[in-house]
Predict the structure.
Amino acid sequence: MKRRVVITGIGAVSPLGVGARPLHEEWAKGRVGIEDGAGWCRSFEPSEHLSIKEIRRLDRFAQLAAVASDEAMAQAGWGSNGDSPYDPLRVGCIVATGIGGIATVEQNLFTMRDRGAARVSPLGIPMYMPNAAAAAVSMRHGLRGQMYGVVSACSGGAHALGSALRMIQYGDADAAVAGGSEATLTEFGFACFNSMQALSETGVSRPFDRRRDGFVMGEGAGLLVLEELESARARGATILGELAGYGATADAHHLTAPEPSGTAAARAVSLALEDAGVETDGVSYINAHGTSTQLNDAAETHALKRAFGDEQAHKIPISSTKSTIGHLLGAAGAVEAVATVQVLGTGLIPPTLGYEEPDPDCDLDYVPGETRRLVPVNGGPPAAVSNSFAFGGHNVSLVLRGAE
Amino acid sequence: MATVTKEQIQERVVEALASFGPDASQITPDATFEELDIDSLDLVELAQIVEDEYGVVLKGEDMKELKTVGDAVELISQRAA
């Protein structure tokens, strides 16, 4: 018998500001957090949140995760330093990243070339290792259950949440802090993505629009506190929503391009719905992966039609958070899960910003223009789907439900 | 290389350690690295700085013996002389 898992805390650092609140509020107002061709976390000042020692020992991606975790855990009402309502050995911690500490790699590579191998920092490896964000969150809050990083490019954040969900569903943990983090806005990061021709030349993220020309990179982190339903109720926690289902598959098709028919991606959506016990006509909102690349947005549209059926797919409002903050790679799935919790909590669906010109390959309801009120399609708390797909062929779908 | 005094070394070591996190006022000759929350990774960085500044090479086994800030200053001063 699998257990149910609820969300009791959300935290985010995004190009719309430090904190989960501006993520949804500013997006709903129609603000685009992208400036100068990328989604920078310009209001994030590490010294406002972290000690000198922490700043020196954490790459930016781990700093962002640490700060987002503070917010999520404070909202859940957990004390810090292991002062949690749960046995710390029963609390998991999974934090994804697509790339890891690329700024640290770059700096140390320059140091090695300029000054020799002996001058490379002893902090290099512990700062750039992709599990550094998970380790930072675990150490900061005394979380001593299963702890690891997840590496699956742009679906990492969603994989982390799915893995944490399973951990609690099947009794390996009673609670978990999970999400994703990314800080890839460096000279080398831009160079690599640019040479793939994956980035938008216009610097505009407009998912599903006919004119879309690539994604816009962003940085940030999203962390969520998950608890087993009965334990959360027993301690009187404020429940923000439910992480109800998880499905994941692989395309086995191409290193970077999605499989165009969306067959495996659709299967991930179906598995997540099945896990949540939600029918195809029971979904009130879809937070799309919607990257603003030609290939993803068309393949995702195909996948949604396969998973929901053509008629039903046309009825569900779909919007992409990447239209306001860009693509946060390994953090995207987690930050978008935070945004989805907020959509379900407020009943407000922010639009796919910049979407103006329809594309015949993308003919669903992408919520153009204005923020729209969510219309629950079933009797109980509304359910939403959040998709994440990635280079390498990863497909992940999460089902979230509003609080009862 | 011009001769460096122990005072100069002390000053540089305090400055380096302060950049690692602890408050400069806590970094006295008697303060232990443990009290200052300075670990082996920090000491490797200190050794890199010392080598750059004074040409003194401190190996892992040298560092293991160091318990206090004063121990480090003493060792570096001896080697630099």
Q: What stands out?
A: The longest helix of chain B spans residues 40-54. The interface with chain A takes residues 19-21, 37, 41, 44-45, 48, 52 of chain B (CB under 8 Å). Chain B is about 55% helix and 0% strand. The helical segments of chain B are 6-19, 40-54, 60-64, 69-80.
